[in-house]
Amino acid sequence: MSEIHQKPIPNLPKSDLPKLVILGAGFAGLKLARNLKNQPFQVILLDKNNFHQFQPLFYQVATAGLEPSAISFPLRKIFHNSKNVTFRMAEVARLDADRKRVFTDMGFLDYDYLVLALGADTNYFGSETIEHFASPMKTVSEALYIRNKIISNYERAVNIERMEDRKSLMNMVIVGGGPTGVELAGAMAELRNNVFPKDYPELSFKNMKVVLIEAGPALLGTMSKEAQEHALDYLTKLGVEVMVETKVKDYNGKVVSLEGGEILETDTLLWAAGIKPNKIGGFSDEMFAPNGRILVDEFSEVTGMSNVFVLGDGSLLKEDRFPRGHPQVAQTALQQAENLAKNLLRDKKGQPRKPFRYKDLGSMATVGRKLAVVDLPFFKFQGFFAWLTWLLVHLMAILGVKNKLFIFLNWSWNYLSFDPSLRLLIKPRYVRASERKEPIEQKTTD
Amino acid sequence: MSEIHQKPIPNLPKSDLPKLVILGAGFAGLKLARNLKNQPFQVILLDKNNFHQFQPLFYQVATAGLEPSAISFPLRKIFHNSKNVTFRMAEVARLDADRKRVFTDMGFLDYDYLVLALGADTNYFGSETIEHFASPMKTVSEALYIRNKIISNYERAVNIERMEDRKSLMNMVIVGGGPTGVELAGAMAELRNNVFPKDYPELSFKNMKVVLIEAGPALLGTMSKEAQEHALDYLTKLGVEVMVETKVKDYNGKVVSLEGGEILETDTLLWAAGIKPNKIGGFSDEMFAPNGRILVDEFSEVTGMSNVFVLGDGSLLKEDRFPRGHPQVAQTALQQAENLAKNLLRDKKGQPRKPFRYKDLGSMATVGRKLAVVDLPFFKFQGFFAWLTWLLVHLMAILGVKNKLFIFLNWSWNYLSFDPSLRLLIKPRYVRASERKEPIEQKTTD
């Protein structure tokens, strides 16, 4: 992965303030940095990308509904007017808690406070072949890759004579019945129902399958019975084949074999079945829970380290209500960051820290173009109004007026035209060997 | 390049109409296909991309002002409602004029009429090292690559301690004083003047150079003296170092050596110095002019072949006014396509063809955020009003209401905010060896 330079990261602004280093600019890391804007800390934010990614809408990038730029936010721009926040694009490799030092591919950094907000990556549950052949969707690049793969599969399919030989290029199998899988399946089904037949009049789409596979007994396992049943109903109406209590045994790039022995032919296996927290070196094994999350106390501080905190998907706070940890969703990350920001300021003022208390604000998932399911703590509803609610909530959560405006226009346009217009197979420019030494090439090819 | 399948391209709609095959969906090819919508021809349009690219705005993609999708148009969408037009994504390799057959990487095609509209690629005038290390901008992918390269260079620069060692990452050298070079230089200078200092407060931009090199005696060689002088004046005011009558001898990826012996340090050499027509096999040498353009008659028909036509950059019609051929610009391509479409229909009706007559509609170039130079046949003007004219003309030329709307909003936004917001270093997902067999991977890596 990252080579570790044995020199300090240079050109950081001089400051007498305590140095707070945040690793990762996802929901948790970005929220914390923003809440500490112009506060008495020198905040240094590291991420391997120079932008924040809005994960809840990846599926719309994958299905040609939104541009990557619509849901990606340049981090330097976010902190233009906050002198105490510095961003660096770097990959973190290892922590040395005794020396209070983190090592990255751009050099090392010494800290007074360290916050790990590294998020999670796709979990293939140990299957190397699935990891090798399936398409994950945990970054905007991976979402864009899915879009390109699907379009190129169709451009190939039209040039294949026998329908039998085309099938695996046209079928789509999505594994994982959580919100991501449900939203992907719905959007893919609508592409098949409304868009592809117009794009590829030469092809017949009656036998094109969109299959959604869930290992558990129901879709949207964490949501209410009503939500689960409506989501299933909506997907079925869109022509998605939903298979619950079904496990994928293996995938060779062409054929998915299920544990029941059944097989599904597809070139496109979208894997949204699970996540595992991103790790860096420097933690002892007993600091991790079995699921790879780092054990923290009610102040998000790592048990056994001082002034090292973990937020979001990678943290595990044992609580009676959540014996196996809080849900690994944006809400948890945002609320933990909010709480930590306040506690850090309380430390400064010599006030006692307040423990983190998770507040369930509810959850929602959208199915296709005008239906959704919404669970609020004391109120559940589904259908068109739920979809409008989903739109509104996500629009509000999007950073920046421009992105809000452009996404709103895109959604209105796609809704009215029934035709997401981003079916572009834009191929990355050929990367020359001579250029592979550059970080950007390195990261795209190593 | 492309493997040539010895089988016909399958799944084409049956038709008794004469088969017109168009190679290339640039300005000429797309215009011809659109003018023959629902006319008595079976039109088969081939392009190696599944979208049309609006070249005049590549420089805005390269300088983070516009998204690739804003200037790329899915070809299948354009022809949703024209039953007689079929699109295929394919790379053309060779023509067999005697058998009236073209060979592509997706199979071969037989034609009654063949139209080459293959456009042109970057011309390095024989320098292999420049071709190897310089960045061209003849596709939207190359434009995006330039954006990523520049941003990654800056992310690297902030992590380099000594200013001396940063220089070549920060400097930009643009070769070619035509509209593309002028527009690139202006936009780059504005990034340096207005955007980068806010993004990279750690760096000093006084010694960051933006250099524009032109071999001829003046910028915008084909335009009026007024236009040339104003463009030079505008660029100089933006802080661009303009060097005319200067030739680049060589470039090693770090240092540009000029023929005068002078050198310029830069990691970023943008090459907009010349073009050469794209070629396919099957033409005899005497059919080409020295500059690689194919000789055609006043009906754009290749001299020595029947029913084979060439449009746009690749065609050369000798005319008293244009002894060395018409200007290789969008206007020529569009007017030739217009004329050919009419002549093909005249053929059908047994009417005589009308010869092509080039009508100069003028030319324009924009310099930075609110200045431009415009030459109309009987009227020349420059400055802010010229810039508004430039905006309007290009907005009108853009396909599709949605793209018009989004580009207009983007431009208004960037103009008011002084801050193009697309500074995202989105890296293509790692392409696995196992996937390289797929066309998309093949094209990105062959």
What would you note in describing this structure?
2 copies of one chain form a homodimer. By secondary structure, chain A is an alpha/beta fold. Chain A has 2 domains: 3-122 and 276-349, FAD/NAD(P)-binding domain, CATH 3.50.50; 128-273, 3-Layer(bba) Sandwich (FAD/NAD(P)-binding domain), CATH 3.50.50. Helices cover 32% and strands 21% of the residues of chain A. Chain A has 12 helices and 24 strands. Chain A has helices at residues 27-35, 58-62, 75-78, 128-133, 140-157, 163-170, 179-199, 225-237, 330-349, 384-397, 401-417, 439-445, and strands spanning 19-23, 42-47, 51-53, 72-74, 85-89, 92-96, 101-104, 107-110, 113-116, 120-122, 172-175, 210-213, 241-243, 248-251, 255-258, 263-265, 268-271, 275-277, 294-295, 308-310, 315-316, 363-367, 371-376, 379-383. Chain A has a 5-stranded parallel β-sheet, with helices on one face. Chains A and B meet through strand 5, helix 5, helix 11 and helix 12 of A and strand 5, helix 5, helix 11 and helix 12 of B.
Supply the key terms.
5-stranded parallel beta sheet; 2 domains; homodimer; alpha/beta; 12 helices; FAD/NAD(P)-binding domain; 4-stranded parallel beta sheet
Can you describe this structure in just a few lines?
Two copies of one chain form a homodimer. Chain A has helices spanning 27-35, 58-62, 75-78, 128-133, 140-157, 163-170, 179-199, 225-237, 330-349, 384-397, 401-417, 439-445, and strands at residues 19-23, 42-47, 51-53, 72-74, 85-89, 92-96, 101-104, 107-110, 113-116, 120-122, 172-175, 210-213, 241-243, 248-251, 255-258, 263-265, 268-271, 275-277, 294-295, 308-310, 315-316, 363-367, 371-376, 379-383. Chain A is of the alpha/beta class and 446 residues long.
